[in-house]
Specification:
Helices cover 22% and strands 25% of the residues. The chain is of the alpha/beta class. It has a single domain, classed as MTH938-like (Hypothetical Protein Mth938, Chain: A, 3-Layer(aba) Sandwich), CATH 3.40.1230.10. The termini are far apart.
Length: 130
């Protein structure tokens, strides 16, 4: 017996990852990207974990998710805790993992109707490339 649908109408899904592109449904985006559970994806001017600052995370804070998944590229890395203070203060959970793992986790949580945001770093991309 199935308890919930495979996907929810209106929920975003990461369809494909390539070296310098992320596909949200059938739309390719070049460069780093913030993808909310529903709505428009946003260009993210970050090309490496070291560039993730409180200011770079401000668009995520404005979306008021329950969880932020940070895709850190091909290797897992961690954002400096001081840069996450505003998110933690707003009771937003934060997880850092490879971009591929973050995309898979994002798809599962978004399909469950969770208020999740994926911030996916495309390494070596020009800031704001779309």
């Amino acid at each position: 017996m199935k308890f919930q649908p495979d996907s929810l109408p209106g929920a975003n899904a990461i369809a494909r990852l390539e070296a310098h592109r992320i596909w949200v449904h059938q739309t390719p985006f070049a460069g780093s990207l913030i993808v909310p559970w529903a709505g428009e994806a946003l260009a993210w001017p970050v090309a490496a974990v070291a560039e993730v600052t409180a200011d770079a995370l401000a668009p995520v804070l404005a979306l008021k998710p329950e969880l932020l998944l940070i895709g850190t590229g091909e290797r897992q890395a961690f954002v400096a805790p001081r840069e996450l203070r505003a998110l933690i203060g707003a009771r937003i959970g934060v997880e850092c993992m490879t971009t591929a793992a973050a995309a898979r986790t994002f798809n599962v949580l978004a399909s469950e109707g969770r208020r999740v945001v994926g911030a996916f770093i495309v390494e070596g991309s020009a800031p704001g490339d779309l």
